[in-house]
Amino acid sequence: MAEKQLMKGNEAFATAAINAGCRYYFGYPITPQNEIPEFMSRELAKYGGAFIQAESELAAVNMAYGAAAAGGRVLLSSSSPGVALMQESISLIASVELPVVIINVMRGGPGIGSIQPSQADYDQVTVGGGNGDYKTIVYAPSSIQEACDMIYKAFDVAEEYRNPVMICADGMIGQMMEPVALPEPVEPVMGEEIRKKKPWALTGHRNERERHALNSVWLQQDLLEEYIDAYWPKFEKAERELQEWEDFMTEDAEVLYVAYGSTARIAKEAVVALRNEGVKVGLIRPKTLWPFPEKAFENLDGVKDVISVELSKAGQLKRDVRLAVEGRARVSLINRYGGMLLDPAEVVERTKKIMEEVK
After folding, report:
1. What is the spatial distance between Cα 351 and Cα 253, in angstroms, rounded to a whole number?
2. Hey, is 39 helix, strand or coil?
3. Which residue from 40, 51, 114, 277 has the highest number of Cβ atoms inside 10 Å of its Cβ?
4. CATH number of the domain at 245-358, please?
């Protein structure tokens, strides 16, 4: 790790991607992630990479498809409505098993919505998205440092699973500044090395291997079923091996917050405030949204209330929390939406009201 330096979130994200070996970036301007394409347009060529500002999000994601098919390390970035436009091709990329890393700097919706931070894309990235039987591996950082570390790791995970990997940050993390220790640069696999280390890539067979092509059309239903069966075990493996979360003061908790991203930082302050008042509160912070960290909820002894703290109207995270809790505790919601943010005092006040309802 290098020494820490003060960086804006979006620029740190882009630097982490370059250090991880990304040499191909395709994007289209949309707030609040515009600093990512701006940074890449200035810096990526210095490392022998290629930057293209596409004419639309649809063009960007399909350019990424082509570069990934040729074995390149590819980054896409956008914000909520832009990611929505990319979903058909994300499904296509998943269907042909290509590694692409996507950064979603979330903003308020639905539709064009606002340019303020939000977490209302949870359903889109975990259970929605494109059509068909596939999953997208999703990481949710709560700081710029963690986002950089997750981006760095995401390229390896994407190549191991040959699947799209998404980093779900929000406008707050993208726009704020924090000290960051950037991961050490790695040398990307380029040129002839791609043919040796990524045999699935479309680099030309040169009479050294069988011809192969990427195919996402299976007009015979039995063949499509067989194809899905062949790649589906990697998602079962991901559910076993990729679940990540943080526990904070959960050992004796009677009230348990579940929050991710920047909202988890607010919930953590509320935990400390309530602990100072003698209330036994803890926090589970999912680091992966898919696979959702169900293992974090295996032991709920003594927990009476589980509260999802999030920035969405209906409680999108709350659904997965309820499934993980399996009726062993009451599940409630503390939320804001539309770009509005929670603060620790509001979380504390609303927690007390939830606890009083039990009485």
Report:
1. 14
2. helix
3. 40
4. 3.40.50.920
